[in-house]
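quick one
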Amino acid sequence: MRLIFLGDVVGRSGRDAVYRELPIMRQRYKPDVVVVNGENAAHGFGISLDMYQKLRECGADVVTLGNHAFDQREALVFIERESNLIRPSNWPRGCPGAGSCMVVTPSGQRVLVMNAMGRVMIEPVLDDPFPALAHALDQCQLGRDCDAILIDFHGEASSEKMAMGHFVDGRASLLVGTHTHTPTADHQILPGGTAYMTDAGMCGDYDSVIGMDKAEPLQRFQRKLPVEKFKPAEGEATVCGVAVETDDKTGLALKIAPIRIGGRLSQADVGFW
Ligand code: FE2
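structure w/ fe (ii) ion:
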């Protein structure tokens, strides 16, 4: 099975690039499932209903979130109706929406998509993601209850993400990190067969400070005073993500490759599709 994951879509630049490139990727790579992290789509902070719907129309089967999940407060309401929009599963009990969803592909294969958030150097501090994911993976076992499992682990610390990768190794098809907005070069298949990448990188303008126009972050680092609001950088975005091919019998990963299309970063094509 072919899985594609795209990292955090930041602002208009990121949205426009994904709206433009995702239909082309669907044609070219013929993925079975595409998952996109949309938590920074709305000017860097959260996601609106129309942005979610446009991502779905352009080819995203599932949209994941993170610490900015509910910055656009309308998301507290529409996430209850939109079952393919998921927020971190370790949000304390009572949070609107769900932390996972099951996608059934046109060929009838079942793909579980989960979202969870780390707790190191990131706010808000949610429930412990380790038992949350262990419980979910016990409930839905790879190769028995579904054909693939894709986990977006939204966190700041590479240590916590690597630990989580090893924690789910052999029980998920892919664990990919999000939130730092910087793609890492450690994409690999772990010993137990789970594809792993510490961070997918953002879909945004890399002539920036993690997707934001440079001026305000630079002055805040120096003067420790806010002057203006953060606003997304507006240059051409690089669409960043990861592609994984899984074994149809086991659901484990066979191949993994980074994706980087457009913008300033060196380009990376899947190669094996
Ligand atoms: Fe984030």
